[in-house]
Amino acid sequence: xxxxxxxxxxxxxxxxxxxxxxxxxxxxxxxxxxxxxxxxxxxxxxxxxxxxxxxxxxxxxxxxxxxxxxxxxxxxxxxxxxxxxxxxxxxxxxxxxxxxxxxxxxxxxxxxxxxxxxxxxxxxxxxxxxxxxxxxxxxxxxxxxxxxxxxxxxxxxxxxxxxxxxxxxxxx
Length: 172
What we know:
- The chain has 172 residues and is mainly alpha-helical.
- It has three domains: 2-39, no CATH class; 56-104, no CATH class; 108-164, no CATH class.
- 56% of the residues lie in helices and 6% in strands.
- The chain has seven helices and three strands; from the N terminus they run E-E-E-H-H-H-H-H-H-H.
- The protein has helices at 31-39, 59-74, 80-93, 99-104, 108-127, 129-141, 146-164; strands spanning 2-5, 8-10, 24-26.
- It has a three-stranded antiparallel sheet with strand order 2-1-3, with no helix packed on it.
- Strand 1 and strand 2 form a beta hairpin.
């Protein structure tokens, strides 16, 4: 139905438009076809979380739990990751959320991506690559201010990502 590319939405002549790395596609079709795309490793399928509204009587309780824990995290100095684990446990204990729903809502692809990136970060820290890259960026654009340093980090990340990744061919 549409292609989102670099902040622009393309809706005309989609059949003739060649896909590029990073394009986001808005698709419409039967659910079984969506499952086919999810099983294909060339696509990352983003879909809305399906929320059942069966437990409306627990909505106020869940909002209250979230508000209290966020208050502790902001004012009380709780670690935000620990606070969110506490929210998840309280939601299950108060039956705002079942264990099956909690487990099903975990985005496992994200967990594995983060788990894979942690050793890379450790390796970059240990070998001094992170310090070297940071020094190069600060020495290059640091005199222009913190916004320029942030832009330098973004640009370096984009260049590294762009040079290593190519749009794979669809084999599904």
